[in-house]
Amino acid sequence: MNFKDLLAYKKAFHLAMEIFEVSKTFPKEEKHSLTDQLRRSSRSPCAQIAEAYRKRQYPKHYLSKLSDGDAENSETQVWLAFAYACKYLERPKYLHLHALSLEVGNLIGNMMKNPQKFGVKK
Fold this sequence. Notes:
By secondary structure, the chain is mostly helical.
């Protein structure tokens, strides 16, 4: 299996791409602040999942990478809340993206709670 086949990776990638598209509509003055922060934090879980999967032979590294990805996913939720509060996102879009982020968090959590299902040796 390749890390790109993991459901958590696929969902995280999808979320990051949706955020990329919607953030194109944010005001220009947000380019170097909210827009960049939101894009970076939403992309990080994909990279962390990929790194964790490659570190499966080292259980502590595996969990550390996934923990970092989960934290970045939580950061994404904060930036989404700011985008909504600043009225850059309509409520339905905010709720949709937030729900996707929660799903990504649950999938990462499942990978952390069940490392043996992902080839991690004890």
